[in-house]
C-alpha cells in the first residue's frame, strides 16, 4: 500500500514547463517578492503572476540575493530574499479584506544567500499565534507553508521569529481570496499535502491553471495507472473548490482493476485534527453496459458512498468534521455491480491549526501604531503589540483576560527622545492605567484629554518642555487621590490655574518643591485606595450574584451550557446564509439549532470597541434578566474574536416595519397596537422596577421592539443598557448614547441617565403607534412627532392625529387616553413624566376601554374571535408574574 508523506519540502518553486492558458483575473491576489527592491514589480514569466516589492509592508530586514548558480529553473520570486539579522521578531503587516477566506502562503528558499552555506531554522508566527517552525533539507529546496484562514481584522501580521538557530529570511508571501463556502471547517487550516493524483507529466501546477493559485504536486504510484482526457473539466457554479481543470483531467486508478485503491499516511502528531478534500471527475465516456461506483472508507469505516462521479464534472467529497487517528488508511472500494474500478483525480489534506490567541483590541493597535509613527519611535515595535506575551512591545504592558483581545494598560516612553506635542492618539488607549512620558523633549500644553482617561492612575510628565497651565481637572483628580501625577522639571509649566504669564524660574522653584510634596501624598492616597477598592468591587459583584440566583438558581450552570462554539455558530447559520438585519455592532443572521429551534444570531464585529463593551454588557445583563416581554437569550459564543449572541427568533420582525408598511393590507389594529404597547411597557417596567439594581435600556425605539408570530411584543437590544447602583443617587453619568428622535432632551443636556429617559423614548414609540408617523420627519416644520401631535391637538379633532389607516376603527376615549399618556411621557422635564408602573396601568385602561367596545360588537361574531378575546382577557391583562 502506498504511504503518502508530507510533500511540502519538495523543490517545487521549480516550474517544469509553460503551457498557454488564457489569462485569468488576479484580482484580490497579494503577491510579495520579499527582498525585491522598493517600488519594483514584474510579471513572473512562468506564471504571469504580478509580484511587487515587500518594502511597503515591513520596516526592517535587508534585501539579499541567492547565489546565481541556484537561480536556474527557479521562478523569479525565489531570486531575492529578505533577511532579518536584527531583532527577535520581525513582522509584515498586510492589508486584507476582513471576513474573506484567504489562502495564505509563505515560501522560503535559502540558496546560500548569505554565503555561509548553513541552513537556518526559525519560527513563523501568524499575528499572535505560532504557525510553524521553518526548516530546510537542502540549499536549493524550498519550504512552503500554506494556511486557509479568515482574517477578522482588515490586516494580518506575519512574523519571523529568531529562535537562536540562524537568521530568519523569507522569499515570498502570497495571499489569495477563496470562496467563502470552500474548505468549511471549525477553524483555520494548515496544508498537509495537496496532490494531483494520476498526473502524467512531472509538473506541478498553480496559477494560471488553478484560479486560486493552489500548488498541485504530481503524484503517481507503481500500483496505479492513469486515465486522462483532453477535455476541459467543468467545476461549475455548484463546486466552490474549483480545482484546476488540468489537475482534474488526469485520474489515478488501480492497475489491478479488482483491487481496492488504497493509500495511507501516519500523522506526525496523533493529536492532529485532519480535514480531507477529495476531488473526482469521470473521464471515461461510459458505454451502455459500463458503470463506475465505489465507496470511500477511512480506517475500515464508510466515509462516503456509493459515489459515481459525473462525466467531466468535478465532485468534491470532504470531511465536515475533523478526523483524528494514529494512522489514516483510505480505501476506495468498487461496488459489486460496477464494471469499472475507483478513480481519484485530486486529494487535499489539511490540519486544524490553533489560532485562538486573539489579537490586541483594534483601537489599541490603531492608537499605538499612530503614536509610533507620530514620534518615530525607535524601538522594535512590530507585529501585534501585546501578543504573544513573550514578544510584547518594549515599554508596553497589557492585560489578558481569557480569550478576550489583549488591551494595552501601560505605556512607558520615558527617555525615548520624543519631541513635539503630547500625541492625541493616547486618548484612544482607553484602558491605559500608567503613562510615563518623562525625560523627553515634549512641548506645548498638557492636553485636556489626559484628565478624561477613565482608567489612568499614574501619569509622569516630568522633565519635558511642556508649557502653559495644567488642566484644572487633572489637578482635581490628583488632589482627590485618583491619579498619581508627576509634572516637575517643566520650567515653563504653570502649576496653578490662576497664573497666565510666564514667571521667572526663581519664583517657580518653591512651587516645584511643593509639587514634589503633593506627589508623595497622592501616591500614599492611591496606595490606600488600592487596598480599599477591590473589596468594594467584590461586594458589588456578590450583590449582583445573589440577585440573579434568587430568581434563577441555575443561571450560572445554565449559562455555561448555553455557550456555543464558533463552528456551531457557522453550522446553525449555514455559514451566515441569511441576513436578518444590521445591528449597532454587527450583522444579525438567521439560524436553526440542532433541535430545529429558529434563532437570531447577532455577530459582534470585532473592530468596534464600543461594540465589544456592549457585547460584554449585554451578555451579563441578558443572563440575569428573564421576562416574557424581553427577548430571550438562547446562548452565546465567545471564541477569540468570534463573539455572538444567540436570541430566540421572533418571526414577525420589528414594530417599526409594521408601522411603516404603507400597504393597506396588514394594518395593525388599534387593539393590536395597544397590546404591543402594553407588552413593551411591561418589559420596561420589569427593567426599571423588577431588577435590582434597576436597568435603564437607553435605546427604546420601534426597531427594538420585536414581535412573535402571534404579535406578542418583546424588547430587544440591551447593548446600551447600564446597571446603576441603588445606593447613592438615582442617576449615573455616562456618555450620551441613543437614537435621534427618541433621545431624552434632558439627558442629552445633563448627561445624567435616569429611568425617565426610557419613559421619554417609550412616549415617542407610543405616539408612533397612535399616528403611524416616524419619530422625526426631516424638513417638516414640526420635525419631531411630539411637536406635530401637540400642534394638531391644539387646533383640531383627535381623529386627525390617529393613523388614517385605522379608518376610524377604534374607541375614541381609548385613543384620547393613550395620547395623554404618551404626551406625559415626552414631557421635556423628567419630573413631569410618569414612571413605568403608572404607564402600564394607564395602557391597561386604554386596552380595557377598546376591548369593551369590541366585546359588544363581538357577541354575534364567530367562536374563534371570542376565544381570542378570552385569551386576551386572562393572559394579557393579568398582573405581572413577578
Ligand atoms: C509597476 O511598476 C511600474 C513602473 O515601473 C508602475 O507604473 C506600476 O504602477 C507598478 N505596478 C504596481 C502594481 O506596483
Ligand atoms: C493599509 O491600510 C492602512 C489603513 O487603511 C493604510 O494607512 C496603509 O497605508 C495601508 N498599507 C498599505 C501597504 O497599503
Ligand atoms: C464572503 O464573505 C464576506 C464577508 O462576510 C462577504 O463580504 C463576501 O461578499 C462573501 N462572498 C461571497 C461570494 O459570498
Ligand atoms: C519524470 O521524472 C522522472 C524522474 O525524475 C523521469 O524518469 C521521467 O522520465 C519523467 N517523466 C516525464 C514525463 O518527464
Ligand atoms: C490528447 O491530445 C493529444 C495531442 O493533441 C493526443 O495525442 C492524445 O491522444 C489526446 N488524448 C486523449 C485522451 O484524447
Ligand atoms: C460492453 O459491451 C462491449 C460491446 O459493445 C463489449 O465489447 C464489452 O466487453 C462489454 N463490457 C462489459 C463489461 O460487459
Ligand atoms: C499504518 O497502516 C498501514 C495499513 O493500514 C500499515 O501498512 C502501516 O504499517 C501502518 N503504520 C503505522 C505506523 O502504524
Ligand atoms: C449498485 O448497488 C448499489 C448498492 O450496493 C445500489 O445502490 C445501486 O443502485 C446499484 N447500481 C446499479 C446501477 O444497479
Ligand atoms: C510592566 O509590568 C512589569 C511586571 O509586572 C513591571 O515590572 C513593569 O514596570 C511594568 N511596566 C510599566 C511600563 O508599567
Ligand atoms: C519607565 O521606564 C524607565 C526606564 O526606561 C523606568 O525608570 C521607569 O520606572 C518606568 N516607568 C514606570 C512607570 O514603570
UniProtKB/TrEMBL annotation:
Catalytic activity: L-threonyl-[protein] + ATP = O-phospho-L-threonyl-[protein] + ADP + H(+); L-seryl-[protein] + ATP = O-phospho-L-seryl-[protein] + ADP + H(+)
Occurrences of domain Protein kinase (ranges): 574-847
Highest taxon of source: Eukaryota
Residues holding ATP: 602
The keyword Transcription is annotated on this UniProt entry: no
Keyword check for Lyase: no
InterPro entries cross-referenced by the UniProt entry: Kinase-like_dom_sf, Leu-rich_rpt, Leu-rich_rpt_4, LRR_dom_sf, Malectin-like_Carb-bd_dom, Prot_kinase_dom, Protein_kinase_ATP_BS, Ser-Thr/Tyr_kinase_cat_dom
Keywords: ATP-binding, Kinase, Leucine-rich repeat, Membrane, Nucleotide-binding, Repeat, Serine/threonine-protein kinase, Signal, Transferase, Transmembrane, Transmembrane helix
Signal peptide coordinates: 1-23
CDD domains, A to Z: STKc_IRAK
Major subcellular location class: membrane
Enzyme Commission number(s) of this protein: 2.7.11.1
Record field: transmembrane: 507-533
Membrane topology label: Single-pass membrane protein
Cell compartments where the protein resides: Membrane
Pfam assignment, any one: PK_Tyr_Ser-Thr
Name of protein: non-specific serine/threonine protein kinase
Organism name: Ziziphus jujuba
Amino acid at each position: 500500500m502506498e504511504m503518502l508523506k508530507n510533500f511540502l519540502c519538495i523543490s517545487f518553486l521549480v516550474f517544469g514547463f509553460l503551457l498557454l492558458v488564457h489569462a485569468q483575473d488576479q484580482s484580490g491576489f497579494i503577491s510579495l517578492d520579499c527582498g525585491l527592491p522598493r517600488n519594483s514589480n514584474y510579471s513572473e514569466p512562468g506564471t504571469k503572476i504580478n509580484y511587487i516589492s515587500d518594502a511597503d509592508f515591513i520596516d526592517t530586514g535587508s534585501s539579499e540575493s541567492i547565489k546565481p548558480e541556484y537561480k536556474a529553473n527557479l521562478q523569479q520570486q525565489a531570486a531575492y530574499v529578505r533577511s532579518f539579522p536584527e531583532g527577535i521578531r520581525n513582522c509584515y503587516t498586510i492589508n486584507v479584506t476582513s471576513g474573506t477566506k484567504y489562502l495564505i502562503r509563505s515560501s522560503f528558499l535559502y540558496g546560500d544567500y548569505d554565503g555561509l552555506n548553513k541552513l537556518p531554522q526559525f519560527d513563523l508566527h501568524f499575528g499572535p499565534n505560532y504557525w510553524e517552525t521553518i526548516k530546510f533539507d537542502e540549499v536549493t529546496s524550498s519550504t512552503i507553508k500554506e494556511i486557509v484562514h479568515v482574517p477578522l481584522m482588515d490586516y494580518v501580521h506575519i512574523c519571523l521569529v529568531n529562535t537562536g538557530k540562524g537568521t530568519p529570511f523569507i522569499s515570498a508571501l502570497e495571499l489569495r481570496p477563496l470562496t467563502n463556502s470552500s474548505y468549511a471547517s471549525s477553524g483555520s487550516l494548515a496544508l498537509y499535502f495537496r496532490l494531483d493524483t494520476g498526473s502524467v507529466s512531472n509538473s506541478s501546477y498553480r496559477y494560471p491553471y488553478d484560479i486560486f493559485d493552489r500548488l498541485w504536486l504530481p503524484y503517481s504510484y507503481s500500483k496505479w495507472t492513469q486515465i486522462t482526457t483532453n477535455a476541459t473539466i467543468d467545476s461549475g457554479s455548484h463546486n466552490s473548490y474549483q480545482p484546476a481543470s488540468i489537475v482534474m483531467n488526469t485520474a489515478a486508478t488501480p492497475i489491478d482493476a479488482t483491487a481496492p485503491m488504497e493509500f495511507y499516511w501516519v500523522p506526525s502528531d496523533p493529536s492532529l485534527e485532519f480535514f480531507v478534500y477529495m476531488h473526482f471527475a469521470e473521464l471515461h465516456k461510459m458505454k451502455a453496459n459500463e458503470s463506475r461506483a465505489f465507496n470511500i472508507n477511512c480506517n475500515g469505516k464508510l466515509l462516503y458512498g456509493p459515489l459515481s462521479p459525473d462525466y467531466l464534472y468535478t465532485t468534491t467529497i470532504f470531511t465536515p468534521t475533523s478526523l483524528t487517528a494514529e494512522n489514516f488508511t483510505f480505501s476506495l472500494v468498487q461496488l459489486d455491480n460496477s464494471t469499472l474500478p475507483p478513480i481519484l483525480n485530486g486529494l487535499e489534506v489539511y490540519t486544524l491549526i490553533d489560532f485562538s490567541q486573539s489579537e490586541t483590541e483594534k483601537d489599541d493597535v490603531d492608537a499605538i501604531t499612530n503614536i509610533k509613527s507620530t514620534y518615530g519611535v525607535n524601538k522594535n515595535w512590530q507585529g501585534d503589540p501585546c501578543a504573544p506575551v513573550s514578544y510584547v512591545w518594549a515599554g508596553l504592558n497589557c492585560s489578558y483576560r481569557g480569550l478576550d483581545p489583549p488591551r494595552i494598560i501601560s505605556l512607558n516612553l520615558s527617555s525615548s527622545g520624543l519631541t513635539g506635542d503630547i500625541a492625541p492618539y493616547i486618548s484612544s488607549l482607553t484602558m491605559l492605567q500608567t503613562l510615563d512620558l518623562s525625560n523627553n523633549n515634549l512641548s506645548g500644553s498638557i492636553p485636556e484629554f489626559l484628565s478624561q482617561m477613565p482608567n489612568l492612575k499614574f501619569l509622569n510628565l516630568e522633565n519635558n518642555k511642556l508649557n502653559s497651565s495644567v488642566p484644572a481637572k487633572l489637578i482635581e483628580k490628583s488632589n482627590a487621590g485618583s491619579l498619581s501625577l508627576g509634572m516637575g522639571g517643566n520650567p515653563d509649566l504653570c502649576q496653578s490655574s490662576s497664573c497666565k504669564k510666564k514667571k521667572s524660574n526663581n519664583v517657580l522653584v518653591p512651587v516645584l518643591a511643593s509639587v514634589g510634596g503633593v506627589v508623595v501624598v497622592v501616591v500614599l492616597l492611591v496606595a490606600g485606595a488600592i487596598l480599599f477598592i477591590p473589596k468594594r468591587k467584590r461586594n458589588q459583584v456578590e450583590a449582583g450574584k445573589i440577585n440573579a440566583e434568587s430568581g434563577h438558581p441555575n443561571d450560572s450552570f445554565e449559562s455555561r451550557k448555553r455557550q456555543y462554539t464558533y463552528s456551531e455558530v457557522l453550522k446553525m447559520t449555514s455559514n451566515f446564509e441569511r441576513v436578518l438585519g444590521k445591528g449597532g455592532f454587527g450583522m444579525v443572521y438567521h439560524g436553526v439549532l440542532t433541535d430545529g429551534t429558529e434563532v437570531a444570531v447577532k455577530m459582534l464585529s470585532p473592530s468596534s470597541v464600543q461594540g465589544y463593551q456592549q457585547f460584554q454588557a449585554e451578555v451579563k445583563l441578558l443572563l440575569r434578566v428573564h421576562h416574557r416581554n424581553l427577548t430571550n437569550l438562547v446562548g452565546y459564543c465567545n471564541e477569540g474574536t468570534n463573539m455572538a449572541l444567540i436570541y430566540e427568533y421572533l418571526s414577525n420582525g420589528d414594530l417599526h416595519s409594521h408601522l411603516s408598511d404603507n400597504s393597506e393590507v396588514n394594518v395593525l389594529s388599534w387593539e393590536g397596537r395597544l397590546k404591543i404597547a402594553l407588552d413593551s411597557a411591561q418589559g420596561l417596567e420589569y427593567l426599571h422596577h423588577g431588577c435590582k439594581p434597576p436597568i435603564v435600556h437607553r435605546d427604546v425605539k420601534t426597531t427594538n421592539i420585536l414581535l412573535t408570530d402571534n404579535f406578542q411584543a418583546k424588547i430587544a437590544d440591551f447593548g446600551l443598557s447600564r446597571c446603576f447602583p441603588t445606593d447613592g443617587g438615582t442617576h449615573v453619568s455616562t456618555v450620551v448614547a441613543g437614537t435621534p428622535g427618541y433621545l431624552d432632551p434632558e439627558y442629552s443636556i445633563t448627561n445624567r441617565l435616569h429611568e425617565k429617559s426610557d419613559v421619554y423614548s417609550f412616549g415617542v414609540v407610543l405616539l408612533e403607534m397612535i399616528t403611524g408617523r416616524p419619530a422625526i420627519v426631516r424638513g417638516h416644520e414640526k420635525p419631531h412627532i411630539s411637536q406635530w401631535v401637540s400642534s394638531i391637538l391644539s387646533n383640531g379633532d383627535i381623529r386627525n392625529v390617529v393613523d388614517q389607516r385605522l379608518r376610524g376603527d377604534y374607541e375614541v376615549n381609548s385613543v384620547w387616553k393613550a395620547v395623554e399618556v404618551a404626551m406625559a411621557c415626552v414631557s421635556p422635564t423628567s419630573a413631569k413624566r410618569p414612571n413605568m408602573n403608572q404607564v402600564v396601568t394607564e395602557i391597561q385602561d386604554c386596552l380595557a376601554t377598546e376591548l369593551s367596545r369590541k366585546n359588544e360588537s363581538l357577541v354575534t361574531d364567530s367562536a374563534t374571535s371570542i376565544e381570542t378575546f378570552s385569551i386576551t382577557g386572562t393572559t394579557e391583562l393579568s398582573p405581572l408574574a413577578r
